[in-house]
Amino acid sequence: MLWTTGLDRASPVPLSRQLAAALRRSIAEGGVGAGARLPSTRALAAELALARSTVVGVFEQLVAEGYLAARPGSGYYVVTPLAQPRAAEPGRTDAPTPAPRRISRAGRLLNDLAPSHRAEPRPFELGFAEIDGRFITNWKRLAARALSGRAQGQWHYGDPHGEAQLRRAIADYLGAARGVRCRPDHIVLTAGTQQGLSLAARVLLDPGDAAWVEDPCYRAAFDILTVAGAHVVPVPVDRHGLAIAAAPSGAKPPRLVYTTPSRQYPLGMAMPLARRVELLDWAERAGAWIVEDDYESEFQSPGRMLPSLQGLDRAGRVIYLGTFSKLLFPSLRLGYAVLPEDLVAPFAAARYLTDRQSSGPVQTILADFILGGHFARHLRRMRALYAERQQFLTALIGRRLDGILTVRRSESGMYLTAWLPPDWSDRAAAAMLAEAGVRSVPLSSLTLATSRPPGLVLGYTGHSEAAMARAVERMEEAFGRQTGLLKLSKPDLLSNQMTN
User: Has residue 464 been placed in a domain?
Assistant: First the structure.
């Protein structure tokens, strides 16, 4: 009775659960055959030094689950398996070949993504916000107030659109700060811009529909649309951002266009007003939806900020996505979609089917944070801090890595794109720096079809000046040791051909 061995009395798992799991496993693996009679509960209890009631309880549980059958006056027996293995064909001694384990096309694509996680950011990882003591103090105080003041009914399921108070606060903020034209009932809360784009793909795209994206592009956007079954078409970016006129000749007309007009990711330029108007006019004529990802415009100088694409839209073609996770802290996982009126209902239903709603208490805390003026003050502090961080990093690279990395100061944002010598491989450089404990994103990994000079995308928010200084020192040492290995062996290494 091998299944009776190995009970661990030091384990926090109760002995009854250990015994039940061992017996299930032995039955499933054939260690205890169908029809076999088990030892009496009294004998097994004595052998294992357990109370007889414990053994009886385990056997009765497995009877309820269908593993065992009780015969009055006789004992407990293993039942005949519901599905018997098929016998081999006459004249063959080999076992029958099992049916292949199949998953969907989307499942295969998801299997290849292999997302990683690291709790503590390392320079120069992207998307991490500065979380200072003042913010933490305010958030804790508002959390205590929100949790203590919630009525019993507010602990139940909430509105898939999002809490009404938070949607009103977002609508007022976006109207004043970004020129977004919306009412609270045009907003659906999301778990961030990635979920917002996933919902847009579900609502707007059928398999095989064309989706046009910027080239280079936020890689998660490319992956989301590809997994959704879209035919993804890369459209080059020029110095004014997405250039619809440069779309590949003969490209399938798009159902959806994804763009980052306020600050193109990862090259950093803003789309000028004339180009925005041109894009909106084209979308109306083409019957295309535009997904505007406004992921970090809050860190631009307010006096230099162009109005949102959505605020200029008069044909109802723009879905505007924003997030608080980059503005406040990544694990917040709260964002929003501002929608044309006829898309609100399907978006809310798609959110309901995905994960029903965002946390009600967290929405209440965030609403109080915005309405109490803390959000505006936090953005002013972070805007100034991030400008200082960018200036520090730019000057540091200029001193320590001159001739290897070239950076130009940007008007705003959370990252810089640093350019390598033209005959280098940015992938090899990023891999070498990762071994030295420095994180970066090679520009070629974000490039779909249009060849670009090699570069590294470096995030500077969420990293102290001391941490960045140590990282640049490690970069200098690593580049000094490995410069000769970073030359491109083939010109086509400049870009990663990922056309679908």
Answer: yes
